[in-house]
Design brief:
By secondary structure, the protein is an alpha/beta fold. It has 2 domains: 107 residues, Urease, subunit C, domain 1 (Roll), CATH 2.30.40.10; 308 residues, Metal-dependent hydrolases (TIM Barrel, Alpha-Beta Barrel). Helix content is 37%, strand content 19%. The protein is built from 14 helices and 18 strands. Strands 7-8-9-10-11-12-13-14 form an 8-stranded parallel beta sheet. A 6-stranded mixed beta sheet has the order 2-6-15-16-17-18, with helices on one face. Helix 2 crosses helix 14 and helix 4 runs parallel beside helix 5. The chain is globular. InterPro entries: Amidohydro-rel, Metal-dep_hydrolase_composite, Metal_Hydrolase, MTA/SAH_deaminase. Belongs to the metallo-dependent hydrolases superfamily. ATZ/TRZ family. It comes from Stappia indica.
């Protein structure tokens, strides 16, 4: 079926003033001003009241953390004390059932905000949660959203001088065996893949060097991406200097991680030489503005990283340090904090759109996503400007960010509608809210 998405109010694409044609899940034509599709269409969708942008791509999250949003034990803390407050609570209460609900809620929120592809960095494996990756594949497939299932890991706990409790880490051999299992079962390298897999040792202070290096070997064997937290706080720098006698980027290089397969979460505390080296290696960086502000972690050097050659993407990060899973909201936060870092003229709404689409696609190694252009997958987000917050807005594309858009009216993934009239087509929102809210109560019982 050929569908003409006709006459959008505005569209983030070149030579597509009259819209685009979607066929077999891909964009097959951009229709310039004054023209019509080059051949007959089977269906027309009137987009004249909607702003159309590429589906947003979330490159860093922790879905299970939706169960501890605004948790009294963790608010008003920076990263390390925040983790120390929450690790014991997660260790006691994250079960297959609560994990499934946390995943479902995060994916639903993302989709409703206009996100069509997401990556989750899951690193917590208490006994009984060995099938965490399988649960996430099931939930993403049910919702119809693309997902990079990121098999995280930790094998250094409190007994080893690390931060996490002993009960949530696994040994190296168990981790590597499951990484290979998940890659073999789910990693799809074909164009238009709905599910891909990445390997993601959590952070330098929670994993061994052997695990970092063996992850590289597996990534090369299965042609997948690599992901980890790096450069998020000054405390992390101090930890690496104390334990490894090197800064985080130096340690990353020792482990064989300075290459184009890698994208990093946060990437805040890099000096000029490290920015240059990361760019030369084409290492991606996921900017997490909302979480970075919440935890007072610092300000990512987005402009310098891009100039050096790093793909820069966008992520909401964990829902206990962001407290929601709304990627469109993060675009506004990215614009504001980067203007504070640089200036108003140097950072525009087009920069934040690029980070959340093309940049994020590059971080995930997805050449088929991230833009409205012929040959790309038909992953699209549609927003109406009929709320009071948009009244008086002159530039529709700028208004989505500057006036604070939150919810997409429609979302399309691979040419299929996944959100209609602001509601996901495969999820009962009211039931999900009730079930998730009930599950989250057990995370407060220890107070």
């Amino acid at each position: 079926m050929r569908m003409w998405i006709k006459d959008p109010l505005a569209i983030l694409a070149e030579n597509a003033a009259r819209g685009i044609v979607v066929e077999d899940g891909r964009i097959t034509e951009c229709v310039p001003a004054g023209q019509e599709p080059s051949s007959p269409v089977d269906q027309t969708y009137d987009a004249s009241s909607e702003v159309v942008i590429p589906g947003l791509i979330n490159t860093h999250h922790h879905f299970f953390q939706t169960l501890t949003r605004a948790h009294p034990s963790a608010i008003n803390k920076e990263l390390f004390p925040w983790l120390q407050a929450l690790y014991p609570i997660w260790a006691r209460n994250v079960t297959p059932e609560t994990f499934r609900l946390g995943t479902r809620l995060a994916l639903t929120e993302l989709l409703m905000s206009g996100c069509t592809a997401a990556s989750d960095h899951h690193y917590l494996f208490p006994a009984g949660l060995e099938n965490a990756m399988d649960i996430q594949v099931e939930e993403a497939t049910r919702l119809g959203i693309r997902m990079t299932v990121t098999r995280g890991s930790m094998n250094l706990s409190q007994k080893d001088g690390g931060l996490p409790p002993d009960t949530v880490v696994q040994d190296e051999d168990t981790i590597l065996a499951d990484c290979e299992r998940v890659l073999s079962r789910y990693h799809d390298t074909s164009e238009g893949a709905m599910i891909q897999v990445a390997l993601a040792p959590c952070a330098p202070f929670t994993v061994t060097k052997r695990l970092m290096r063996e992850s590289v070997t597996l990534a090369e064997r299965f042609d997948c991406r690599l992901h980890t937290h790096l450069g998020e706080t000054i405390d992390e720098d101090d930890y690496c200097l104390h334990h490894f006698q090197s800064r985080p980027v130096d340690y990353l290089e020792e482990c064989g991680w300075l290459n184009e397969r890698v994208w990093l979460a946060h990437g805040i505390h890099f000096n000029d030489d490290e920015v240059r080296r990361l760019g030369h290696a084409c290492v991606g960086v996921c900017h997490c503005p909302t979480s970075n502000m919440t935890l007072a972690s610092g300000q990512c050097r987005t402009k310098e990283l891009e100039a050096a050659g790093c793909p820069v993407g966008l992520g909401v990060d964990g829902s206990a340090s962001n407290d929601n899973s709304n990627l469109m909201e993060s675009l506004r936060h990215a614009l504001m904090i980067n203007r504070l870092t640089y200036d108003a003229a140097s950072v525009t709404h087009f920069d934040t759109y690029r980070w959340a689409t093309e940049g994020s696609a590059r971080c995930l190694g997805r050449k088929d996503l991230g833009a409205i252009a012929v040959g790309k997958q038909a992953d699209l987000a549609f927003y109406r400007l009929d709320e009071l917050r948009f009244s008086g807005a002159g530039d529709p594309l700028a208004a989505l960010i500057l006036c604070g858009a939150h919810t997409a009216n429609r979302v399309m993934v691979a040419g299929d509608w996944k959100v209609i009239d602001g509601r996901p087509v495969h999820i009962d929102i009211e039931r999900l809210r009730a079930e998730h809210g009930a599950a989250a109560k057990r995370f407060l019982e220890a107070l």
